[in-house]
């Protein structure tokens, strides 16, 4: 009888979880390298992670050429499908529209408001600032379906123009998962509407990112997938309810502090592919691991050295989160790139390189994140 009760409870719990499968696809860097266009691209569009996190009254995003995790959502009645980046570092949902004729829009799926019976015009304009350009458009509302959840009257952005570098990106648009406090035009984010409309059992979502596998990654709305991690969850209080920002004590290699001495601020961000830190700090880390950096900020190592390179440990709220060289070095036919990026913004960004190692749980209402060792 006890076994039946436990099994029934597990079934009921699993039914409360809404899993959004993510595909690990080709990055813009990989696509451009195959076409022989990467050198030209990075000259015109240098990686500028700071642009995304500078609040100027408009929604911001950086031109990250290494983002590779995408999920499929639908908007409208009947539904129109789009691939989006689930971004915990921004708060708005936007997709290209049929009113945009830029090359970036022509390369992607475009939402047609006239083909949705549930679409409503909002009347407000929208501007999304990139490191090297912008997206402009307008706001509307419609039914948005995410991982089996149907969110009614969701306000979202429809682009009319897009920065040229978006033409090389795999995703059609962005679905922001950060706080409403940083949303352009104070739009209520998709996740907040899931909660207020009673569509999920718990006000939380979690993220699992696979390594080299194309399938298996997921965003879970309403709980956690215990099969994706091992050990205890380390709960970390947020220091700011804007991004998922928290205090980090130090960054160490072989027990030696190499960055963030005396403490610093960090952000857990699914919408940044690498780990970003202050220029001097990343330069020091690269020196410790034997990486060389070119004029565009790309750091590389000899692929033969990966097995002997040290792990990098991020010390957060009394917990040590270690990232081995096998995780922070990406290997391809073009060589071995190091997953550390430089910025003068002062904040650290723990992006996908970090999240692939640690299952990430986001509890915006109680202002906590949780981290556990991924399996």
Task: Give a written overview of the molecule.
This protein has 375 residues and is α+β, with helices and mostly antiparallel strands. The protein folds into two domains: 191 residues, Acid Proteases (Cathepsin D, subunit A, domain 1); 150 residues, Acid Proteases (Cathepsin D, subunit A, domain 1). It is 16% helix and 41% strand. It has a six-stranded mixed beta barrel. The longest helix is centred in the first third of the chain and has 15 residues. The protein is globular and about 60 Å long. It comes from Acanthochromis polyacanthus. Shows particularly broad specificity; although bonds involving phenylalanine and leucine are preferred, many others are also cleaved to some extent.
At CATH's second level, what is the architecture of the largest domain?
Beta Barrel
Give me the CATH superfamily of the largest domain.
Answer: Acid Proteases
Strand content: 35-45%
Distance from first to last alpha carbon = 32 Å
What is Rg? 20 Å
Category by helix and strand content: alpha+beta
Gross morphology is globular
**Uncertain residue segments:** 1-14
The total strand number stands at 28
**Could you name the CATH class of the largest domain?**
Mainly Beta
Number of domains: 2
Helix % is: 10-25%
In CATH, the topology of the largest domain is named Cathepsin D, subunit A, domain 1
| pLDDT averaged residue by residue | 88
Q: State the strand order across the main sheet.
A: 3-4-9-5-8-7
- The helix tally amounts to 8
Largest sheet report: 6 strands, mixed, barrel
Protein name: Renin
Signal peptide: 1-16
GO molecular function: aspartic-type endopeptidase activity
Family: Belongs to the peptidase A1 family.
């Amino acid at each position: 009888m006890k076994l039946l009760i436990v099994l029934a409870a597990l079934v009921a719990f699993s039914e409360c979880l809404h899993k959004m499968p993510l595909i690990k696809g080709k990055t813009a860097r990989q696509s451009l390298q195959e076409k022989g266009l990467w050198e030209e691209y990075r000259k015109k569009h240098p990686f500028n992670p700071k642009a995304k996190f500078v609040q100027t009254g408009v929604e911001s995003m950086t031109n990250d050429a290494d983002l590779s995790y995408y999920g499929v959502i639908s908007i409208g009645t009947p539904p129109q499908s789009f691939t989006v980046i689930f971004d915990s570092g921004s708060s708005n949902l936007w997709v290209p529209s049929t009113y945009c004729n830029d090359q970036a829009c022509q390369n992607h799926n475009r939402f047609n408001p006239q083909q949705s019976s549930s679409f409503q015009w909002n009347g407000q304009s929208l501007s999304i600032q990139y490191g090297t350009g912008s997206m402009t458009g307008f706001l509307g509302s419609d039914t948005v379906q995410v991982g089996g959840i149907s969110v009614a009257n969701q306000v979202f952005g429809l682009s009319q123009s897009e920065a040229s570098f978006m033409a090389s990106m795999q995703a059609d648009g962005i679905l922001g998962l950060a706080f409403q406090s940083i949303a352009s035009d104070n739009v209520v984010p998709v996740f907040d509407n899931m909660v207020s409309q009673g569509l999920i059992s718990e006000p939380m979502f979690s993220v699992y990112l696979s390594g080299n596998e194309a399938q298996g990654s997921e965003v879970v709305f309403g709980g956690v997938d215990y099969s994706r991690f091992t050990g205890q969850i380390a709960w970390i209080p947020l220091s700011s309810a804007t991004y998922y920002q928290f205090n980090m004590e130090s960054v160490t290699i072989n027990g030696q502090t190499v960055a963030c001495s005396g403490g610093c601020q960090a952000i857990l961000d699914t919408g940044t592919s690498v780990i970003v830190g202050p220029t001097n700090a990343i330069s020091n880390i690269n020196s410790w691991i034997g990486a060389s950096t070119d004029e565009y900020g790309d750091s590389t190592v000899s692929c033969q050295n990966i097995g002997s390179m040290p792990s990098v440990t991020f010390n957060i709220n009394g917990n040590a989160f270690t990232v081995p060289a096998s995780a922070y070095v990406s290997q391809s036919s073009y060589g071995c790139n190091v997953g550390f990026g430089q910025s003068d913004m002062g904040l650290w960004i723990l992006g996908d390189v970090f999240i692939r190692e640690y299952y990430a749980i986001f509890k915006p209402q109680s202002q906590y994140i949780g981290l556990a060792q991924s399996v």
